[in-house]
Amino acid sequence: MSISWSVHLRCDAAxxxxxxxxxxRTMETAGVDPEVCYEVSVAxxxxxxxxxxxxxxxxxxxxxxxxRVSAYLDGEMCRIEVADSGPGFPAHRRGPRPVSAGHPVAxxxxxxxxxxxxxxxxxxxxxxxxxxxxxxxxxxxGAVVSFDKALKWRxxxxxxxxx
Length: 163
Prior knowledge:
Elements: E1 2-10, H1 15-30, H2 34-54, E2 66-74, E3 77-84, H3 91-94, H4 121-128, E4 131-136, E5 143-150
Antiparallel strand pairs: 1-2, 2-3, 3-5, 4-5
Helix pairs in contact: 1-2, 2-4
């Protein structure tokens, strides 16, 4: 069995805990180890918070934008994708290819100092996930943050079988 869902949310701070709880409950019900549930849900919260803060109105002064959260749990892997409708990552910060866990995050987000209240989200996602990509939606505008995490299962749970 595999589980996947996608939800469109308004760029509003109240949507962040909603997305987090939806993911946590899905993973808990499937039998994912609590520590992995926590790590993935924190990474999702950071990605959603970035979408709310930076992916708001597609045009300055326009109506509030929306973002999409998609989750895929299949076998031993979880993939999360958060796509917003904002301006996307600046070209001078993206680089020629998506930034993944093996590449410096400074290419998209810079480095946040220990005292910084903003700018740590992308770094935290990189620390909590196994593989991370920061890209722009081709032709449509908006940023896409996607990350993968290997799943561990509770001792009393049967892992999802790949169909």
